[in-house]
From TrEMBL:
Pfam families assigned: DUF1003 (PF06210)
Species this protein is from: Luteolibacter rhizosphaerae
Family annotation (InterPro entries): DUF1003 (IPR010406)
Official protein name in the record: DUF1003 domain-containing protein
Top-level taxon of the source organism: Bacteria
Amino acid sequence: MKKCAITGQETPDHLAVPLSAIRPLLRTFILKRHPDLPAEGWVSRSALDELRSAYIEDALQNEIGELTELEREVIDSIRGRELIAERPETEEEEDRTATFGERLSDRIASFGGSWRFILLFSGFLAVWIILNALQLFGGKAVDPYPFILLNLLLSCIAALQAPIIMMSQNRQQDHDRKEAMRDYQVNLKAELEIRHLHEKMDHLLLNHSERLMEIQQYQTELLQRILGEKESKD
């Protein structure tokens, strides 16, 4: 058991990290907050996670200024080691959560923006114009040229279709905005984790280089001692 220098609680050996093994930037931040920590002290992983989250929050505030709720959710996910990515909803799941008006607007917008609608409506216009131009309605045109009734009908369709399509577009924009927010959170967390990994790799490489230098120096001293003993024997 190791005693955490931050909380003062006993911690199992596998859940404790020596202060000297923490990467330099994070160790500097910890010592700034706790200047009385011993150089050979140990820190529990739970306390280290809290300090790491505070370090990330401080770094983000220095880089982008005041943090929004999105950034704080990312920091909380790092603190709790939780996933922040979500599985996208299927079309059936979206239909179940949508209201009847939203589903209806989506269907009308989908049909109104298809070639099927264009062909059917073009055929309707052609039939209407031909029948009234040739006066095939019992010898009397219902809507003679210049087809005022047809213009009224088209105006009514356009007046109703436009807001319905806008409703569907607004719903799609809200969906895209939520997706963009989730993508931003995932990208931000990935960037922070990669930065943390780079700092850890740099710390490991530095310690490894120092260790190799110590071994090389020890080997040099040992070789010199062997050569000195050999010369003294000769």
